[in-house]
Amino acid sequence: MFPYLAVSWLSVFKASEPLFINAFDVGSVTPTADAISNAMKNSTSNFDDITLTIELAYKRISTNINDFCKEIDTKLSVYRLQMVVMIGSKAPNLAISKWIQGLETNIDKEKDNVVFVEVFQVNCPGCFMYGIPQAIEIYQKYRKEGVTVLGLATAFEDFDKNTVANLELLLTKGQTIGETLKMLGQYDQLVDGKKLPYKIPFPVAMDLLKKENGSISKERINEIIEANVPDFNSYNEPQKAEIIERVKQYLKNKDYSAQTFDLYALRGTPSTILIDKKGILRDVSFGQNDLLEENIKKLLNE
User: Fold this and answer.
1) How far apart are CA 16 and CA 159, in angstroms?
2) CB–CB of 85/37 below 8 Å?
3) Alpha-carbon distance 60 to 14, whole Å?
4) What pLDDT is stored for residue 51 in this prediction?
5) Which terminus has fewer CB within 10 Å in the chain: N or C?
6) What is the pLDDT of residue 212?
7) Sign of the C-alpha dihedral, residues 128, 93, 6, 59?
8) Are the beta carbons of 165 and 113 closer than 8 angstroms?
């Protein structure tokens, strides 16, 4: 009924059970939660199989079940996210709130095509100075060669500017706003003082935004630091404290979470996502991507 791994999972739980009991003596569930969730993080088994097995482990707990499960679920939500976005794994569908332009599609509907997703924000000058123009060039050169180019507008900041309404204004009238308007104007890259000098020809959707509940957990802070400051441990203690404080302020001011942005663990905009013909995630890049066309050619030849 259960795979061999289930037996080993029960062994993991049995070994951690004393930690669970001792932990609750001092009012903390973290030791056991770490023991189980860390083991799950390092497993190569199917996530559903692991979940089924851990449910058996839950049944062994007679007290404090709600707190224990909550702690496990919190940690596993982070690890599951990290497992999903791993390069070389199956690419998850984009989380879309609305398609603004072009035919609706998604990753699972583009089999046998190389999929290139250009992720941008409406209030992002760099996105329109080199990110979007590069995506347009790729679209024009490779759209008939088996490359699907998609635009995804997201919002991880400036939520009053990076809106569906401003995205629609951009796509229908070429209208820029905020820092994009200011910066492109300074470089004389606007038409009539406010419009883009080009039109975006490929399908564009808006990322799905989820309202934040205002809570700032240690796990969430660590997740952001691990994703954005990989050499965090090399800093001295005052520097670490400053980084942690900046992350706290970022989360405090974060009204929404952009689901696709978080799902693919993106670090900012513009970002590019490359998926091969079999639906496998092959590359995620932030900023100007000088290897984009070369990587697309390689995927086309596979």
Assistant:
1) 43
2) no
3) 9
4) 58
5) N
6) 79
7) positive
8) no
Query: Residue 68 has what pLDDT?
Result: 55
Interatomic CA distance for residues 284 and 86, integer angstroms: 10
Whether 29 has a pLDDT exceeding 90, the answer reads: no
Closest CA to 143 of 117, 105, 113: 113
Specify the pTM.
Answer: 0.68
Give the CATH H-level superfamily of domain 96-210+255-301. Glutaredoxin (3.40.30.10)
> Which residue(s) pair with 115 in the sheet?
148, 275
- Domain limits of the chain? 4-84, 96-210+255-301, 213-252
